[in-house]
Amino acid sequence: MHSVLKDILERKHAEVAQAKEAMPVEALKERIAELGRTRNFFQAVVDRRHPDVSHVIAEVKRKSPSAGVIREDFDPVAIAKAYAANGASAISCLTDEHDFGGKLEYIHQIRDAVKLPVLRKDFLVDIYQVWESRAAGADAILLIAEALPERDIIDFQILATELGMTTLLEVHDVDNLLRAVNIVGFPHASYSLLGINNRDLRTMKTSLEHSMRLAEMLEDTSILVSESGIRTPQDLARLRAHGIHIVLVGEHLMKQPDPGVALRNLLAPV
Known about the structure:
This protein has 270 residues and is α/β, with parallel strands linked by helices. It contains 13 helices and 12 strands. 42% of the residues lie in helices and 18% in strands.
């Protein structure tokens, strides 16, 4: 495991232990019982009928380990509204506070302001966080294959499906891709997406070609999400040529003066 990821996961285990004391899982279940239905994240981004269209999961984040503080004037609700008004298919919200400047409560705030489904993007290491995600209003969760044993991925996917949430199972290297293809879509195919992280955690560099190379190993790319390093309409066109029609874009949009306008420009016809 890469040292950056290892350090984050060690911290995350400690954070989860504290969260369990502050809010036991039974309290989370009571909160979930009071919530309405989830929004269908999978349906919002998977579109097999229009091969010339890209769907963007637009990300809300203040900072990252690789880039530092990305946006000083950070208003997650205003940013999500701008994304929704300019063509986003779904929203990704960072909730890790230490490294990404996020907060769990941002999810409800965003959902109250826009009609798009919201992904909780964090480092899930304990099934408690699946309950926590739904209680916070998330419509989808991120699972990182490099961070979890296969049995946990399966257990987390089962619970997420029972709670109506989509899972985005993220991989970076080939070994984890081969592992993931056997379990993505379990227990219900319409609740699972497969993400390819174009950022190499060893070097922190991104390469769009990484998604293209790994896509060639898959028979069905309709549930594939390319993450990181996407900046131009030409990038989207290149990915579509390799069968990838869903992208997650954060840092590029957050660095622009107006993230909404940047998203609209990204989605412009080539």
